[in-house]
Amino acid sequence: MPDSPALIESRRFGVRQIPLLRPLGWLARGWRDLMRCPLPGLLHGLGLSAFGALLIVAAGQRFWLLSGAFTGFLLVAPVLATGLYAVSRALERGERADLSVALRAWKPDQATGGRLIIFGLLLAFAGTGWVMTSASLITGFAGAPVRSPLDFLRVVVLNDHSMLFEVWLGLGAFLAAPVFASSVVAIPMLLDRPVSVLAAVLTSWRAVQAHPLPMAMWAALLMVLTVLGMATALLGLVVVAPWLAHASWHAYRDLVSPNDDF
């Protein structure tokens, strides 16, 4: 059976070999980019924090909904950082890097913006599915109403007579793992190269399959730093979100290259 056009297109790009601890280098370079051009990143982080606060207000005493909404939003957040990938690319090229560069990445008359919107809609669909699944699990199987973080901790996390928390975590990981593998390289690649959405996703999967341990470390760093940012009443996200976005650009640049670069 012949290979699909998307697979053939994906094979135009090689996957570079990286050492286990390279994700720490991505963090260092991401921090450097944030310090060199802080305004776009801090505005992005402020917007994410404000949206998180809006979620908290909207959910009110329905923490069963808020827990799924927050984790679902994290699935969509990487595509929202596209403007910051453009800033890192400009810094890498020695070009002007400012807020206008970040905004131009989303111009509707550019093919790049259209492909990113398509990918964002796919991620939003996955995030919505998780929100519904999470809410159904907690409302349907929790032994008592879950209206606050303390309720979630007492009724779901620390309940010795229920496997609800383990099931909740397992299903979340089951959804998050393929989303991470599909997007970790694909989103910056869609900004950087004239490639189809499916070819970018296949390249992302190839990068993850070639480096399971470094990419598992990268996923863990993303999760831990994001949780720390959220744990500071969302204020930490103002810095953490753009830091991780800039670092994600360098992850892509380290992992993917045209075959003729070898």
TrEMBL record:
It comes from the Bacteria. The chain crosses the membrane at residues 39-58, 64-87, 116-143, 163-191, 212-245. Keywords: Membrane, Transmembrane, Transmembrane helix. The keyword Membrane applies. The keyword Membrane applies. This is DUF2189 domain-containing protein. The lineage of its organism: Bacteria, Pseudomonadati, Pseudomonadota, Betaproteobacteria, Burkholderiales.
